[in-house]
Amino acid sequence: MEHYERVGPPADEALTYLMSMRQALGITRIADITGLDRVGIPVVQATRPFSLSNAVAQGKGASLARAAISAILESAEGFFAERIEYFDVIHGSAKSLEIPSGRYETWLREPTLADWRDKDTAWVSAENLLGGKCDFVPLELVHTAYLVPPSPCDGIFTPTTTGLAAALDETDAITHGILECVERDAIARALQTHGFLQHQRIDPATIDDARVLALLGELARKDMIVGLWLAPSPVGLPVIWCHLMESNPRETALLHLPADGSAAAFDPAAAAVQAIREAAQARLAAISGARDDMTRASYPRYPDWQLIEAHRQLITGGRKDVSFARQRAYRAAGGQTLRGSLLARLEESGINAVYLIRLNTSPWNRLSVVRMVIPQLYPLVE
């Protein structure tokens, strides 16, 4: 299998560098919360109290160091995307800037403004990696300065963090951002597909990857049940959606409701491992109670036990129509870089715009933060 491993300096070197900039980023606390749950997958939280989006960022990984790197990078993404004063902004309407009709319609807020193309808003220049042409992307799809009241230029498009990525290597950041766009699109499509959870479940008996089997075995020993679904993507990359629950009775369960995570990767095994780790991270977000975007509405004091049992049955029983062993890894063609091969795959699937916006990370120029916007892929409303 050709697993995509994030590139850049060794974990210890990367963590040392990121820790040196944490105070300037406004990060006041970095906490290992792994021990709050029985799962054991390393999860770290980074707290940035004056964030203009989520104050608490989370990271997960194969080791505590990698989880900490992930958490700090996620917090850094928000920090740099909030600095609107660093963007080169152009004001105008979609019509006056000759934005092609249909380019951003998928990303409009509900209810849609019928005359949105005539309204002045803010735009930033972006490089289309499919051809190199420069076009305009709405600033609202790039920044994360979610203010109350909102900026006069906001209110047309769906705000999202999809495609926002940070790394100590630009190619790595771009690849990570594109994969996130592919993942969110596939999950958005799955949510709109009637009967998806009943028909796209992966049969555990067909899983033939040692890493995935070892992880599932460890979770089973810790009284966890795991459901994996294949979310079909028009891009053709494997996207795995994981639902994670405890098999313990309600009296001893730490968290009754399921937690979910998803990932896109170059092969199904890597996607499955990453999706399971993200589900474990979601469990700890709820258990810790620290995430400011998770409210009592998500985890009520008096849960619907019938609904919880139905979800448990969905994971443990029912149809398992998808063979994991038949899912193919996507391999770079001879002589192509992984990024080049990924762009070729996007273009082959009918996508004609993959926009790259480089965020200003001054004075930490070693860090690369990008926003990838692929208008033809669906947003996942957060």
TrEMBL record:
Record domain YcaO: where: 59-382
Pfam families in the cross-refs: YcaO
Record-linked Gene3D superfamilies: 3.30.160.660
PROSITE patterns, A to Z: YCAO
InterPro entries assigned: YcaO-like_dom (IPR003776)
Domain of life (superkingdom): Bacteria
PANTHER family reported for this sequence: RIBOSOMAL PROTEIN S12 METHYLTHIOTRANSFERASE ACCESSORY FACTOR YCAO (PTHR37809:SF1)
Protein name, per record: YcaO-like family protein
Organism in which the protein naturally occurs: Mesorhizobium japonicum R7A
Upper lineage: Bacteria, Pseudomonadati, Pseudomonadota, Alphaproteobacteria, Hyphomicrobiales
